[in-house]
Design goal:
The complex is a heterodimer of chains A (about 325) and B (about 300). With about 325 residues, chain A is mainly alpha-helical. Chain A has 12 helices and 2 strands. In chain A, strands 1-2 form a two-stranded antiparallel ribbon. In chain A, strand 1 (about 75) and strand 2 form a beta hairpin. Chain B is mainly α and about 300 residues long. Chain B is built from 11 helices and no strands. Chain B has helices at about 15-55, 55-60, 75-110, 110-125, 130-145, 150-175, 175-185, 190-220, 220-225, 245-255, 260-295. In chain B, helix 3 packs antiparallel against helix 4. The radius of gyration of chain B is 24 Å and the shape is globular. The chains are: A mainly alpha (about 325), B mainly alpha (about 300).
């Protein structure tokens, strides 16, 4: 890199011999200033943990263990109940659908860009996929709500009637009791579109670290391109892809607005993909501004649960990545 | 542990099947790209089509219609809100993030403290935006008993901070150590070297990273929706009274079934996409500028 050297050479002359040479104080101050800025990350994470947990305490106090494992979320009425289980299950179901769709697609796109695409096509494809990441999530939600739900309802009905005589499948893909087309599946599909860019760019970076020598060795032995990918690219990048999927999972779980608009907002524990439902982040967005007292405390508590889940997933993802990087450096 | 032995090759008679498999796999990869282009084209195309019908100078400047089912009104207050809140967030997060990145790359290096901070910054990028909204609600809105634009700016700043830190650190890493050594050799102290040599060398990259963080923050909805409240007239005071933003208006109007509300939502969506794309394009230009300058 040919960046110009500083134009003005040092003007202070040789280092003075006094007990405190010029600039030493500024130097130290600057160091501590930058350290302080870096520590802000720690401070903010600590504050999040402390202040949200404190506000969620009334929920834990009033529901006890039922807060997490309770089956009912009934905020209104004489006997309100705030059990988080339907929402935790909803979050997991939507994320599972999203990952099932997004992971193969992302790996496919990443392989296309790194191994198949002619060089002039690579950058445009990357740019275009990255554009998907720039579209705000509320626009995805709006699009899903006013364009996607109607035609997709028909598709759900078709699928349901096709598999209606096959056991298991006729439960999983059963007809939607909610006639609007808003469901776990709809939310999952849109979340899949939203997390594909991030998984793609992470796996792309992983595939790019595969040594060319190994790929060439495979090709030189007569492997087809696909055999080269399976024999040289995949074994080298397995843990990196796992980390990318975990990071995508964290994003999917935190996705709020699109799920709030598309899940149908009815908390329930079910394995029926076409059923309407709700998820943790989504219910916070939908109910927070009208909630008071225990209700609000419970919503903040859901945020705490979400925070813990995403932190744990994030740490595991980084640990996997770190271990694989160290191993690569060792070989 | 990685197995460098390469693919297991089958014998010659299977040749044709291997070629077929290769062709199938290649077409699957091409197909996956095409599949992802469909939603992009559909979403952007539909937003432009619906939004263009709605957007006019009056839509961009008029106050928001107070009665949802009536026509008229614009998005002026929301546009002002989005720009002010995102701007305030950037003013907080970018200097802090750049300083933090300087610590990580120039001082911390491979030390334990830097390692932990790096991990925390990575993990913090994964914290859902709605959690940041709840956090600011608990420390700010509950304390001052008021929803303000500044609360929204705080939430966005928390989201931007780790992104800016990690993007800036990547850029600082690219600055060749010869530059630093040359500066030391001329007698500059470390702080001076960083400010006058390292930062200018990485400037375009840092600007690009910051603009991408701004683009991401401008489109955020969930945290703003919780902490800034709602207002139908322009509020330029971030510290007093509720505010509003484009994303919050889209979310609100999307949930209403009136035809005019849907129109408003699409108009606001096109405006918001235009703003975020603008920042993204600016970021690309900054990167291009960096590449050209280094190449020459």
């Amino acid at each position: 890199m040919a960046v110009e050297a500083p134009e003005r050479p040092h003007t202070r002359g040789p280092i003075s011999e006094g007990p405190r040479p010029p600039g030493v104080v500024t130097d130290h101050l600057f160091r501590w200033l930058t350290l302080g800025a870096g520590l802000m990350v720690l401070v903010i994470l600590g504050l999040i943990l402390f202040s949200t947990t404190r506000e969620a305490l009334p929920w834990f106090r009033s529901e006890g263990f039922g807060a997490i494992i309770g089956h009912d979320w009934i905020p209104a009425g004489n006997n309100p109940k705030f059990g988080a289980l339907p929402l935790i299950c909803g979050t997991l179901l939507v994320s599972a659908i999203a990952l099932t769709l997004a992971v193969p697609l992302s790996i496919g796109i990443a392989l296309f860009v790194t191994e198949v695409a002619p060089r002039p096509l690579r950058k445009p494809v990357i740019y275009v996929i990255d554009l998907l990441a720039v579209i705000p999530s509320v626009v995805y939600g709006l699009w899903g709500l006013s364009v996607l739900v109607t035609p997709i309802k028909g598709v759900y009905d078709d699928v349901a009637s096709t598999v209606s005589s096959i056991p298991v499948l006729n439960t999983v893909f059963s007809g939607d009791p909610h006639p609007s087309g808003r469901s776990f599946m709809t939310a999952g599909i849109v979340v899949a579109i939203m997390i594909t860019p991030i998984i793609t760019s992470l796996t792309r970076e992983v595939f790019a670290t595969v040594p060319t020598s190994q790929k060439e060795a495979a090709l030189a032995m007569g492997a087809t391109r696909w055999e080269m990918i399976r024999g040289a690219v995949f074994p080298h990048s397995r843990s990196g892809v796992v980390a990318a999927v975990l990071i995508g999972l964290g994003r999917a779980m935190g996705e709020t607005i699109a799920v709030a608009l598309l899940s149908g907002s009815s908390p329930r524990i079910t394995g029926r993909l076409f059923s309407s439902g709700d998820a943790m982040a989504a219910i916070i967005a939908n109910q927070f501004n009208e909630a008071t007292d225990t209700w609000r405390s419970a919503l903040i508590g859901l945020g705490v649960v979400l925070f813990f889940l995403t932190i744990v997933i994030g740490v595991i993802a980084r640990a996997v990545l770190h271990a694989s990087e160290r191993r690569m450096a060792g070989t | 542990m990685s197995d460098p032995s390469g693919p297991v090759l089958t014998a010659a008679p299977a040749h044709r099947w291997r070629q077929t498999k290769n062709a199938l796999a290649t077409s699957a990869l091409v197909l996956s790209v095409l599949v992802m282009l469909v939603p992009l084209v559909l979403i952007v195309g539909y937003t432009i089509q619906r939004g263009a019908d709605v957007i006019s100078w009056r839509f961009l400047t008029d106050p928001i219609q107070g009665i949802d089912q009536l026509p008229g009104g614009g998005m002026g207050p929301a546009i002002v809100g989005t720009l002010l809140i995102t701007g305030a967030a950037a003013a907080m997060a970018i200097p802090l993030g750049v300083l933090g990145a300087i610590y990580l790359n120039e001082y911390g290096g491979t030390s334990k403290v830097a390692g932990v901070l790096r991990l925390l910054a990575d993990v913090m990028t994964g914290v859902p935006s709605i959690v940041m909204g709840l956090f600011v609600f608990t420390i700010f809105v509950l304390r001052f008993k008021e929803k303000t634009g500044f609360a929204g700016a705080l939430a966005l700043a928390c989201l931007m901070l780790p992104i800016v830190i990690r993007a800036t650190e990547e850029m600082l890493k690219l600055v060749p150590s010869e530059l630093r050594e040359a500066s030391y050799a001329l007698g500059c102290r470390k702080a001076r070297t960083i400010v006058t040599v390292v930062l200018p060398a990485a400037l375009s990259g840092i600007v690009s990273g910051a603009l991408l963080a701004i683009a991401r923050a401008a489109g955020e909805t969930a945290p703003l929706f919780l902490v800034i409240g709602i207002v139908s007239k322009t509020n330029t005071d971030l510290f007093n009274g509720p505010n509003t933003a484009l994303s919050a208006q889209i979310f609100r109007n999307a949930g209403l079934s009136f035809e005019v509300s849907q129109d408003r939502a699409w108009g606001a969506a096109l405006t918001l996409i235009a703003i975020t794309f603008l920042f993204t394009i600016l970021a690309r230009l900054a990167t291009a500028f960096l590449t050209r300058r280094t190449a020459s």
